[in-house]
Structure formats: structure tokens, C-alpha cells
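Entry 12.
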Amino acid sequence: MSGRARPSADPPILIVEDRDSLRAMLRHALEAQGHTVVEARDQPEAEAALVATNPAVVLSDLRLTEGDGFGVLRAAKDHDPQLPVIVMTAFGSIQDAVAAMKEGALDFLAKPVDPDHLMLMVERALGQRRLATENMILKDELAQRRGAPHIVGDDAKLKQVSQSLHRAAATDTTVLLEGESGTGKELFARALHALSPRNDGPFVAINCAAIPETLLETELFGYEKGAFTGAGQRKPGKFELAHRGTLFLDEIGDLPLSLQPKILRALEEKRFERVGGTATLQVDVRVVAATNRNLKAAVAARQYREDLFFRLSVFPILIPPLRDRPGDIPMLARYFMEKFCRDLNKKPLALSPAAEEELCAYAWPGNVRELQNCIERAAILTEGETIHPRHLNLSFRGPTLAAPADEDGGPWSRIDLSGTLAEASRRTLLEVERRKIEQALTEAGGNHGRAAEILQIGYKTFTAKLREHRLE
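Predicted 3D structure (C-alpha cells):
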């Protein structure tokens, strides 16, 4: 193919081919046109290259010595649903190519490969990729102008979440946001609302774990005048307030069993009655739910209705914990630094290399929320222009009470024994309790439900303990 080679502004093109000679020919043809190329000989190498290089296009043979092109295609689509994949096959195996296109391949090339035809297909794939990216950027910019929150991060896992949000936003499907506490599930729910056709309607949020069981039904569905003592007038519930908008049900895993049938009906039929009322109300609401619990395990333990679980998880989106995207930690830290410096009317702060190293080495069981709190505290404590490790206060996970004795008397020297026996005993007990909860959170990777199971206490007791020890 004639044409002037141009410097590539795109991510690389991944070639998956087990024949060295053909792979070399394809590489030279693409590089002659200014493209960057990454090579793989089989499916395992291709899967590793997908994660390492985030290619713009995948060009894969269907027949490989280990794995096959169908496996490469599925891995590519799992990595990025918008990633264009072109498959190559022998002329006599066109049926396989058609099957691959049904599974999501953009196009196919029959062998022997014609270089001109190859270039046309690659340019078409890159054009499609750019158009999809531009549309996503435009939609994001429009959503930002309408008040969508800014989601910070470049990690591939976070980009997959963003792509899933865009796909779900165009529909009225119920979305279940899964992720550990502090990962920003409400932030993603608000972004989903802003990207959707319902963005002009209300966004109404309710935390199902923060409201006592006796009050939750009236908060969700409202009540009629005289429904109970003190109900002096009619009050609309969250479902009514979210009419023609989005209702965000946070901590849906903590929904009482007694209330689950009414929630299921409201989700399926968009109908309900206020507490104390007989009139059936119809609403137009899109529901987004969130949980940090393993709902499948709750269903198996008969703590959650299976039909409600299936109704909620039509479109599940898993939000990765911060420890799984460590490359985003410095970027998030700087974003929060800038924000808090503006809020505190302070001069811009810098992050020292040692502080950045400590941030990246920490496990962040509280995820983005914990990082935000850490940076806010550091911004307040820093008197100079640079945040150092001492300002981060991440050393509290140091020696435990079970540490061996040292020359100054061991751990007992660090226990406050002042006051009465009852006062000293209570202080010591609270310290042990706090450290045990922190240990369980670390072991559970920040998952509150799993930490409660490790401690063998109820979930509501666990959340109360978190508030008591200020570990939220």
C-alpha cells in the first residue's frame, strides 16, 4: 500500500500469530506505516500483552499452537468491550471467521494476507476506535457540565468500569454497583445518572444501612396522614421523589428480609402503596443499587431473597479496590491535595518522594475515602510547602499489643493505667477491640461483611463498632 508513513499517536497494534515469518511480515508492513507493534505467539502471551500494553487493535490468527483466536477474542473483549479485533484464517476456514464475527470480531482477513487489504482494515479499526473514544469524551464533557462527579484514574480496570457505565447509562436497566467500602459507589451512581437520558430528573439517594428498620419503609415509600402516631401529614417517600429520575439504594445488602418483597414489587412493577395507604402509586424510576456485601453468599445463607438478588443484578459493575490500581494512588493524592488547598485557602502543596512511596506501599483498606481523609489531614497539618511521611499518619498499624517486650517495659509501658480499675480496664479493652477490628479489615481487604464474619459478630454490630472507633 502506498502512502507516507506517519508517526503513531495511537496505542500499539497487537499481532497474535505463531508463525515467525508471517508475524515478521505483518510487523514490517504495519511499522512501515508508522504504527507501533506488539507481538504474541499464542493466547497466554496475548492475554499478558493486553494487560501490559492496552492495544488499540488486535490482529489474531484463529489457529494457534497454544489456545486459539477465539480465546484471544474473548480475552480482548473482557479487557475492553470496545477493542477492535481482526481475525486471520485460511481461505478454507471462512466459517470459523464468520463465527468469530458473531462473537464480536470486527472483521476477518483470509490468508495469504494482502498487505494493502490489511492496512485498510487496520485504518478502519483505528477510525472506529477513535470515534468511540471521542463519543465517550463528548458524553463525559456533557455530563460534567450537568454536574457529573469527576472520576480520577487511568488504570485499565477503572476504564472498564467507565465503559460499563456508559453502556448501562443508555438503558433503564437496574444496575448493581459492587465494591468495598470507600471505593466511591455513590460517585459512580451519580456519574451514571448524569450520563443517562434521565439527567434532567432528580437523583435521590438513601443508605439502607443507616436508617433503623422501623423507619426504612416509610423513608422509601412514604406514609399517609394518620398512618401512625405523629404522622400529622402525608409524606412522600424516596421512590416518589425520584420520579422520572434515578433512585440510588446504597448498602442494599442490609435491606431487612421483611421489606424485601415490597422492594421487589416496586422494582418489577414500579408500583407501591404508602404506609397506611390503600391507593397504588405508579412511578417512573431507574434504580441503581450498591453493596459491599457478597449477596450470593447472603442468598445461600437465606439472609437475602434470591428473586430480589437476580432483579438487582441485571447489570452488575464491580468497582476495583484502590490496592488493585496502585498507579492511580499518586494521581488521586495530588487531585485531593489541590482540592483541599483550594478549600483551605493554602498555597499549592507538593508531595515528597518519600511520602508518595509510603502512599503507594500502604494497603488502603478504606480505599479512596481513606486516602481522601489522609490527604485532607496532611494538608491541614503541613506548615511548609511539602507533604512528608510524618504528615500522613499511616504508622498506626505498627506494633500490636502482642509485640515482644522491649527494654522500656514492652507494650505495657504504652498502656494508660491512670484512673480507676474500671476506667483503665475499659481503655485497654477498647484499644484491643480497635486493633482487632483493624486486623480483620486488613485480612478482609477492607470488605466490611467479610471482616464481620472473621470477627463472628453481626454486620450491624460491626458497623456500630466502626463508628464507635471512628474507623469508617
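Annotation: Residues 1-9, 395-410 have pLDDT under 50 and may be disordered. The longest helix spans residues 115-145.
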